[in-house]
Write a structure and sequence with these properties.
Helices cover 17% and strands 29% of the residues. The protein has 283 residues and is α+β, with helices and mostly antiparallel strands. It has a domain of 194 residues. The strands form two sheets. Strands 2, 4, 5, 8, 9, 10 and 12 form a seven-stranded antiparallel sheet that branches. Strands 1-13-3-11-7-6 form a six-stranded antiparallel sheet. A hairpin with a 6-residue loop joins strand 9 and strand 10. Helix 5 packs across helix 6. The protein is globular.
Length: 283
């Protein structure tokens, strides 16, 4: 309950119209016709199957396409991305949210951390782009949730649980890159919640999840704008209809496939450049 007395002009203050913080009008938009042409002739070069409640790493070179597909049953995934040549540059969910909104889909980009701030991957196809925003304020593929993690789980329940997406990604980094556990954990970062259906409640502003609309065969595709290492965790929440951070939910695998477009499709394309700010900071 509020502790402060409501002012006489409370209604007037609340009625002030909002202003979009970062108008996207000046952001370069991908050419969807070109992307459709690029997608029409792809050759698969790799695939990785992510087991339920686990994570796997994959690599995609600049100009390659990677696809994440639901297989066997409805399942959400937590996606991390790093510059394959410099792990300190990674996906920046907060800035992606500020530029594109709480949920992303075809034509939106996954932006990297400062000072680089450039596209890491562009969403070029999404079989769930029809979903939009539902009556509860929920949407698919969110950049508002941080990732389920064992520290928050312990804070709320006092339990030790090791298959949160944060731990899954940490183990994958250790196993597949051979780096130290404590270093690996620091590289796990806020995610794109692939296929997850989420939003904020209208009355209390609380983050909510609901059953994902994803079904086997649904997929989301990305064009790698730079050389990437990715990690995908098949979340222990399954379709996130009721719980996460537990072994209760029914969970399914997720498939990652990497494709080469035809060379001629990329003849006028170049990897994304680092942000052009001179970093003088007024000094």
């Amino acid at each position: 309950m509020p502790q402060s007395k409501m002012p006489a002009d409370a209604s007037a203050r609340r009625a002030i119209a909002p202003v979009i913080c970062y108008p996207p009008d000046t952001l370069p938009r991908p050419d969807q016709m070109w992307l459709d042409t690029l997608r029409a002739d792809l050759g698969k070069v790799d695939e990785v199957l992510v087991s339920p409640r686990e994570a796997r790493l994959f690599r995609a070179k600049a100009g390659q396409v990677f696809r994440i597909t639901s297989v066997e049953g409805p399942q959400v995934g937590d996606l991390n991305l790093w510059n394959a040549d410099d792990l300190s540059e990674h996906f920046f969910s907060g800035k992606t949210r500020a530029l594109h909104g709480t949920h992303v889909s075809t034509g939106d980009r996954m932006w990297s951390t400062l000072p680089h701030l450039r596209p890491m991957a562009t969403i070029i196809h999404d079989t769930l782009d029809w979903y939009g925003i539902d009556a509860f304020g929920g949407g698919v593929h969110d950049v508002i949730g941080t990732r389920c993690d064992p520290h928050t789980h312990h804070l709320l329940s006092g339990e030790q649980y090791h298959h949160c997406c944060h731990s899954n990604i940490t183990r994958a980094l250790i196993t597949e890159l051979g780096i130290d556990r404590d270093v690996a954990e620091l590289h796990a970062h806020d995610v794109l919640n692939v296929f997850m259906c989420t939003g904020f409640t209208r009355d209390t502003g609380q983050y909510f999840m609901k059953a994902s609309p994803v079904r086997p065969g649904d997929h989301i595709e990305f064009l790698a704008d730079i050389n990437l290492i990715g990690a995908l965790s098949a979340c222990p929440g399954g379709d996130c209809s009721s719980t996460h951070s537990s072994d209760v939910a029914q969970c399914y695998p997720l498939l990652i496939e990497v494709f080469d477009p035809k060379a001629e499709a990329l003849s006028d394309w170049a990897p994304a450049l680092r942000n052009g700010y001179d970093r003088s900071h007024g000094l």
